[in-house]
Amino acid sequence: MKIRILLLSLACLLCTMLVNEASADTKTYYRDKVIVLMYHHIDKNEGGVTISPARFGTHMKLLHERGYNVISMDQFYKFMLHGGKVPENAVLITFDDGYDSYRKYAVGIMDKYNMVGTHFIIGQSSDLHNVKTPHLTWDAMRELKEKGHSFYNHTYNLHDYGPLDKNGKKTGPLLTNRIYLKDKGRVETEKEYVARITNDLSKMEQRLKEELDNDYGVMSFPFGAFNQTVKQVLKDMDVNLFITIRPGINKAGSDEVYRLNAGTPKMTANKFVELLRTYHD
């Protein structure tokens, strides 16, 4: 009899623990807001903005186990600009640069938890494959788009720094600066600057439409650098959502998006959890 009572008590304790655990998993941390995570490259050799498959897997597992709801760019776009709804504890997963490691590592990990991501592509790298680290092909992107992943603008070929003076000692992001023209012996005019960035950004939007038939435009700024001229050039192309690297949580109604940098080897499991908690209500 005592054994039966003991077993019953243990069973009740176990049930209580499971209920509490389930409650913790479905806890509401925030409503009508979205955390956007930023990643770049995944490789077994970590460093800089490169993290291991294991580290990324831990991040995704923590999102799943702790009750965060990963949404698509379509959901996020409609939420930010058109009054759409998002679930509580909403998270958007983004990658920059277009590395093929997204297909090789990240997609399989996200598949385990029925998650999708958004990747911002450097167009020339996917067109010419003229870089050391493999980039996504358009064929791969089309296949992934069928599974719910999405791909947008990270410039065609302006993800770099350029000279701002004659000596070339002063440099700045190509997208946001009037660069020094060596052949003309001067800094480009405002008109020349606008024409240069317009040509690049329009070419990238064209490639995205040609290859992926995108319905709308989203831009992630290289190095997080942008100005009002860049925004206006993009708006004239019907690109209306702009991804920055400024930390924060996103509320509807803004065209500028905050992101949290999770793609660093320093982002341990504990630090990842604390990063998310920073933005809980």
Automatic annotation (TrEMBL):
Its main location: secreted. Coiled coil: none annotated. Gene3D superfamilies: Glycoside hydrolase/deacetylase. InterPro entries: Glyco_hydro/deAcase_b/a-brl (IPR011330), NODB_dom (IPR002509), Polysacch_Deacetylase (IPR051398). It holds the Pfam family Polysacc_deac_1. Residues 1-24 form the signal peptide. This is Polysaccharide deacetylase family protein.
